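U., I forgot to send this yesterday:
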Amino acid sequence: MAELVSSGKTAGRSRLKKMPVRIDLTAMVDLAFLLITFFILTTSLQKPKAMQVAMPVGPPGGDPESRTMTICLGKSNMALWYLGMPDKPLEAPRIVNYSKTGLREALINTSKKVFAATGKPLIVILKPSGHTIYTDFVAALDELSITGVPSYAIAKISPADIELLKQQRAW
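Result:
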């Protein structure tokens, strides 16, 4: 039983002897546990948010290379991107990081350039390497979502892309 006992001592001269006060705190403890239980059971936890990813059925071929941007995810928060095919890119491969001035700016500028040239939206192929960590992959997907790229695919990295990553020291 929980109780609070005050002392019967008095300060100074007192003729009346005060009896110690005993307060039973059992009901207060029971009420506290009931309230804690109530709030734990009625609280709703944050719901997990998932991004929809539509995986292609076949290889992402058949799309014109003039509007296909390939992003190869390397190590250490670095990504290599180029426009076109790896053997003859329309723009030289460049290494960027996942910042506003890195991958996001590359996506926005390339998307504007492709739309101005072809009148069609940009297509992005995302290729994670064996050295890519999960947070970098999610950061790249976030950048695609933020920049509003309408169509993108996730594909296996090719040996030509691995060579480009090794040349740029992002492997």
